[in-house]
């Protein structure tokens, strides 16, 4: 049993209270510790990715209790990839937040940031459905704090909406778990797969209800139509670095759909086969359309980027909805790409907006370093819209290539291609308004609004620009090394769909035989 | 007893959903509290309804017992939903004090000032 698996959960969990209680009045100390903690997390995530590359499913039993009774953390290629993605994104966002001073505009930014990382890493690593709920709550409660960081009227109101939406989602999650437990007698994802496979199709009504409820919960997190409406308001009003970090939160939802609906409710289960893809596919198509029209119609920069994130989630979930190894490879590549592309856009937008009176898409006097910001925005936007040479193009190409069945090709290709076109138009419009037409406006006019325009002339320091450039660098690396990365992702999705070895790794084979339906037919039923 | 428990869950859920749809902070908080009560009872009942049984296996033969796991789950759920409700009260209160409005649905795309104009 490799103990490193628990480190991505434990490290932020131990660091956060120290940051919150001991370093609350010393921002420099908090910055140093938070950065060092995130760098260590990145190193551990790299180590775990190397360890998981051997193709085995590593299981960490908490308290050494055997699997269906105790909680297990499971490290396979997919979870290692997601933890690595989280850690690298976190480092980029943290450097940006420190360099731009966002972390000092309210209390406890670093403590909440670490709790957020704990929740996200835990959700990626856990092998137990109820534990997944707990880690969801951890990451959500940290995200509530981060969402309203630095306060302000619009942000607090958007925060209330966000909290309410997610509390309702959590309640639904609990209903789903209760139903699952009542019908299968277990909450361990691998054990659930064993039990559900034994349920014949005509008796699986309750399990089907639970599967769909779970999918709705994950769809709320993944901003899937018709429950995507919270995302634009939230991301647009959140502090920009936090919105950049939230780019991974939507992926938590996509990951959970991929994990639970592949292993527990996936292909080959008589009761729940074909359930997820039936609903997921049309919803994802509509999500692409919602995102594209939102990008086209946005009047402010932050909602524009938020809608482009919605559109990218649609593209991602179209590929997920296919539930085949090929499409999942494409989905994973696009997931890595869209995380960095979305985060990069938010970071660049932060640099621009903090030097303009507001983020309205109207011509305003050009900011200092207009050329630098314009080229950063251009690079991030072509990545998000899916134009060559950056990885968005390859990601969409992989998705299109994977989804070529006669029935779905019309929908998928039309939605993705038309959606990409609208996104390109929307970004081109925004970019030309922000960076190009602005240069036609003479500078002295807005000087009357002194307090707001003073920030306009502060040049961005290299440290403030570095995170955005690093994110674009990752996107470039994704397309340069697309071959080896796709090879790794192919192995990842193959491992994900190899349900038997996952189950065997989590539950020792002899134990699966030894305790059939232990909790299901309890003698307690006759108690009343 | 099944009927009583089932209808209690149903009534609590219906009330919770109705209050949530009011889209004002205070009714929504009450609605979420009702929903969390409903889900707690629901989880508790997912281990089957049993009266007068211990949640542990008896070492002395064939005595029946009630499933202890849902009781542990419901404890976690109670703690989490209680904490979350407290957070929501605080966030909702500060949003109300900041903006003077307890409406929950806001237009995502409007400039920050527009939300207020829309409300009037």
Mean pLDDT of chain B: 83
Q: Structural class of the helix and strand makeup of chain A?
A: mainly alpha
- Topology pattern of chain A, helix = H, strand = E: HHEEHHHHHHHHHHHHHHHHHHH
Give the distance, in angstroms, between the N- and C-terminal Cα atoms of chain A. 44 Å
**Biggest sheet strand line-up of chain A:** 1-2
| Separate helix tally of chain B | 4
Order of SSEs of chain B, N→C? Answer: HHHH
Helix content estimate of chain B: 55-70%
- Which two chains have the most extensive interface, and how many residues on each? A-B, 52 and 56 residues
How much helicity do the residues of chain A have? over 70%
Low-confidence stretches of chain B: 108-120
| Rg over alpha carbons of chain B | 20 Å
Largest sheet of chain B: none
Describe the overall structure:
With 528 residues, chain A is mainly alpha-helical. Helices cover 71% and strands 2% of the residues of chain A. Residues 509-528 of chain A have low confidence and may be disordered. Chain B has 120 residues and is mainly alpha-helical. In chain B, helix 1 (2-20) runs antiparallel to helix 2 (25-45) and helix 2 runs antiparallel to helix 3 (69-99). The radius of gyration of chain B is 20 Å and the shape is elongated.
How are the elements arranged and paired?
The complex is a heterodimer of chains A (528) and B (120).
Chain A: H1 7-21, H2 27-52, E1 58-61, E2 72-75, H3 77-100, H4 109-125, H5 129-147, H6 153-184, H7 189-198, H8 205-222, H9 230-237, H10 240-263, H11 275-297, H12 301-320, H13 325-353, H14 370-385, H15 391-402, H16 406-436, H17 450-453, H18 462-480, H19 482-497, H20 499-506, H21 509-514
Antiparallel strand pairs in A: 1-2
Helix pairs in contact in A: 1-2, 1-4, 2-3, 2-4, 3-4, 3-10, 3-13, 3-18, 4-5, 5-6, 5-10, 6-8, 6-9, 7-20, 8-10, 9-10, 9-12, 10-12, 10-13, 11-12, 11-16, 12-13, 12-16, 13-14, 13-15, 13-18, 13-19, 14-16, 14-18
Chain B: H1 2-20, H2 25-45, H3 69-99, H4 114-119
Helix pairs in contact in B: 1-2, 2-3
């Amino acid at each position: 049993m490799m103990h490193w698996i628990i480190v991505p959960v434990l490290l932020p969990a131990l660091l956060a209270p120290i940051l919150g209680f001991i370093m609350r009045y010393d921002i420099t100390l908090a910055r140093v510790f938070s950065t060092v903690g995130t760098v260590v997390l990145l190193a551990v995530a790299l180590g775990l990715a190397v360890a998981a590359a051997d193709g085995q499913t590593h299981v960490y039993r908490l308290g050494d209790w055997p699997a269906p009774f105790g909680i297990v953390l499971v490290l396979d290629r997919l979870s290692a990839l997601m933890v690595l993605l989280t850690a690298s994104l976190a480092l980029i966002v943290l450097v940006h937040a420190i360099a731009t001073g966002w972390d000092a505009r309210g209390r406890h930014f670093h403590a909440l940031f670490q709790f957020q990382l704990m929740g996200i890493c835990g959700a990626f690593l856990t092998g137990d459905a109820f534990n997944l709920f707990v880690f969801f709550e951890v990451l959500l409660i940290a995200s509530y704090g981060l969402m309203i960081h630095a306060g302000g009227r619009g942000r607090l109101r958007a925060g209330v909406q966000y909290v309410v939406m997610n509390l309702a989602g959590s309640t639904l999650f609990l209903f789903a778990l209760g139903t699952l437990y009542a019908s299968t007698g277990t909450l361990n994802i691998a054990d659930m797969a064993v039990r559900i496979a034994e349920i014949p199709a005509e008796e699986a009504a309750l399990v089907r209800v639970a599967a769909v409820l779970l999918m709705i919960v994950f769809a709320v997190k993944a901003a899937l139509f018709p429950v995507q409406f919270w995302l634009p308001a939230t991301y647009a009003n959140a502090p920009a670095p936090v919105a950049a970090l939230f780019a991974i939160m939507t992926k938590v939802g996509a990951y959970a759909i991929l994990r639970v609906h592949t292993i527990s409710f996936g292909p080959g289960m008589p009761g729940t086969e074909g359930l997820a893809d039936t609903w997921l596919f049309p919803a994802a198509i509509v999500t692409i359309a919602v995102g594209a029209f939102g990008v086209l119609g946005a009047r402010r920069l932050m909602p524009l980027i938020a809608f482009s994130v919605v559109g990218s989630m649609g593209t991602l979930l179209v590929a997920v909805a296919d539930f085949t190894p090929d499409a999942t490879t494409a989905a994973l590549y696009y997931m890595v790409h869209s995380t960095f592309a979305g985060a990069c856009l938010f970071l660049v937008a932060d640099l621009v907006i903090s030097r303009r009176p507001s983020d309205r898409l109207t011509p305003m006097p050009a900011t200092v370093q207009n050329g630098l910001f314009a080229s950063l925005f251009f690079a991030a936007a072509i990545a998000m819209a899916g134009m060559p040479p950056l990885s968005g193009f390859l990601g969409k190409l992989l998705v299109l290539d994977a989804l070529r069945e006669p029935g779905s090709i019309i929908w998928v290709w039309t939605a993705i291609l038309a959606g990409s076109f609208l996104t390109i138009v929307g970004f081109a419009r925004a970019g030309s308004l922000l960076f190009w037409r602005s240069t036609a406006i003479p500078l002295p006019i807005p000087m009357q609004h002194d307090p707001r325009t003073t920030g306009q002339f502060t040049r961005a320091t290299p440290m403030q620009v570095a995170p955005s450039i690093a994110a674009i660098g990752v996107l470039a690396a994704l397309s340069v090394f697309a071959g080896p990365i796709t090879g790794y992702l192919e192995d990842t999705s193959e491992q994900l769909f190899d349900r038997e070895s996952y189950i065997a790794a989590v539950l020792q084979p002899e134990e699966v035989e030894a305790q059939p339906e232990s909790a299901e037919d309890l003698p307690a039923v006759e108690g009343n | 007893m099944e009927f009583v428990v089932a209808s209690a869950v149903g009534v609590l859920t219906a009330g919770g959903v109705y209050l949530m749809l009011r889209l004002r902070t205070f009714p929504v908080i009450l609605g979420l509290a009702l929903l969390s009560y409903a889900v707690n009872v629901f989880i508790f009942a997912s281990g089957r309804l049993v009266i007068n049984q211990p949640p542990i296996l008896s070492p002395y033969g064939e005595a029946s017992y009630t499933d202890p796991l849902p009781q542990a789950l419901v404890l976690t759920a109670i703690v989490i939903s209680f904490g979350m409700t407290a957070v929501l009260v605080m966030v909702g209160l500060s949003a109300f004090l900041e903006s003077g409005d307890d409406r929950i649905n806001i237009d995502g795309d409007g400039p920050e000032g527009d939300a207020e104009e829309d409300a009037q």
